[in-house]
Specification:
It is a single chain. With about 260 residues, the protein is mostly beta strands. It has two domains: about 100 residues, OB fold (Dihydrolipoamide Acetyltransferase, E2P), CATH 2.40.50; about 110 residues, OmpA-like domain (60s Ribosomal Protein L30, Chain: A), CATH 3.30.1330. Helix content is about 10%, strand content about 30%. It has two helices and 14 strands. The strands form three sheets. An eight-stranded mixed beta sheet has the order 1-8-3-4-5-7-6-2, with no helix packed on it. The chain has a four-stranded mixed beta sheet with strand order 9-14-10-13. A hairpin with a 2-residue loop joins β11 and β12. α1 packs across α2. It starts with a strand and ends in a 6-residue tail after the last strand.
Amino acid sequence: MRRLLPSLLLLASLPAVAGETVRFLSCPVYRDTDAGRKSGCWLGTDGATGRRFDVSDAPFKPSVGRMMLVEGEVAGTPDICGGTPLAPVRVAVLDEPCVEAVIPAEGYPSKPSVVLPTAMAPLSVPRVLPAPPYLRKDFQVEFTFGDDRLMYQHVEVTIENASLYAKASRGRVEVTGNADTGGFSASGRTMREPPALAAARAGMVREALVRLGVPARRIVVRTDRHPESLKGWPAALALSSKRRVTITVTPDQSGQ
């Protein structure tokens, strides 16, 4: 049953330093706002420090009533939701249930909902194949902790771009599924992904590519259960970057 919690029941945020990295488990709190439809904020409290964080910028959103894993970096942006903002930030919804918490706006402005710049164009819009020259190219598809689902409004553009590049270059496609089996600590608990998750993620991406017109015979599937973190990613997302599938397109140079 959903409970409406007054803000005084939530722990007040303690000072946080911009650039600080955090990782913790928390029950999410959804804050209603006056900024219009879909403009609410997502908050989570780190039980070890009592600090409340705004995780609204996470591409994968929390779910009311389900525990979440939060990984992010403290941002220097203003508090518009009632918690210290994290950006970049990643959230993973876990199977563990928790209290369903919704609180009122209480004067926090939040921000209006906007269409993501990376949102996939309607299928009625003609696709244009990328022009040569074609070089070996990687496309990274993110997943949340412990999950093999393709996340709506986040990964479809990446997969479509990979399919268009593969068709234009007539390339060989290597799909490498990764799983973070090494493990890490969050809120005093050890978290790790099962080895089989690497193959499950690769299978999901392979199927999506085939559905988008990439010939199955040109796709090779591999797995890596001990992947390296992606270079160039923020330190706060180093572990998160291991939860991915890498699509590598090697163009056919015979006709170029």
